[in-house]
Model the fold of this input.
Amino acid sequence: MAYSTRSYARSYSDSGGLPPAIKWLLIVNIGVYLLQFFGGLAGGGSVFRYFELRPLDVVSHLFVWQLATYMFLHGGVFHIAFNMFALWVFGVPLEQAFGTRRFLNFYFLCGTGAGVCVVLGAYLFGNPAIPTIGSSGAIYGVLMASAVLWPDQIILMFFLFPIKLRYYVMVVGAIAFLGTFTPSSGVSDVAHLSGLGFGYIYVKMRRVRGLRFDPVGMARERYKAWKLARAKRRFQVYLKKKGSDRIN
Done:
C-alpha cells in the first residue's frame, strides 16, 4: 500500500479558508474512507477491490480506472490522516499559486503517473497481484512542487525539528529510495518516488510560475519548428542547385 507513517510539518499558509480543490479532495477522500470502513463492517468491503490499483487487473483485464481510483482508498485511519494532513499543509499554498484547475491537473498527473510506475515496477521487479492504495503518489508530487517553489521555507520535521523544505524533501526522498530495497515493507515507495519525480518535472517544465503546462502544445510547437527547419534546409539546397546551374 502507498502508506506512510512519516509525520508532516505544520502549514505555512496564512489563508483563513480552504481553496476549492483542497476542500473537495478532503471531502471525497474522507467520504470514501468512511464508506470503506462501514462497508467492511457490513461485509460489503470487497467491492472496493475493483478500485485498488492491482497491476494484474490493469494489464490483463484493462481496469485502467484503477490508475486514478486507488488514490481515494486508504488502509487505515493513520494512513488517511497523514495523507490528508499533508494535502492540507502543502496543497493549500500550492493551489493558491497554481489556481484550482491547474492544481487538480497537477494532482491527478502525479497520482496517475505514480500509478503507471507502480504497474511497471510490479511487472519488472515485483508481484503484479499485490494491490496499492493511497494518495501518497499525488501527495509526494505536491510536496516536491512546494519544495521547488519555496525551497527555503522553514517547516517542522516530526513537529519538532526546524528544517528547510528542500532538505525535508531530500530526506523523505532518500527514505523512499532506500525503501525500494525492502519491497515487503508494505509501503509503496515506488509510488512515493514517482510522485516526487512527476512533481519536479511538472514545475520545471513550467519554467515560469504563470506558464501553463501543456505537453500537447509543446509537441505541436516542436513539430512546427521541425517543419520550418526542414523547409529552410530544402530552400538552401534549392539555392545551391540554382547557383551551380548558373555557373555551368
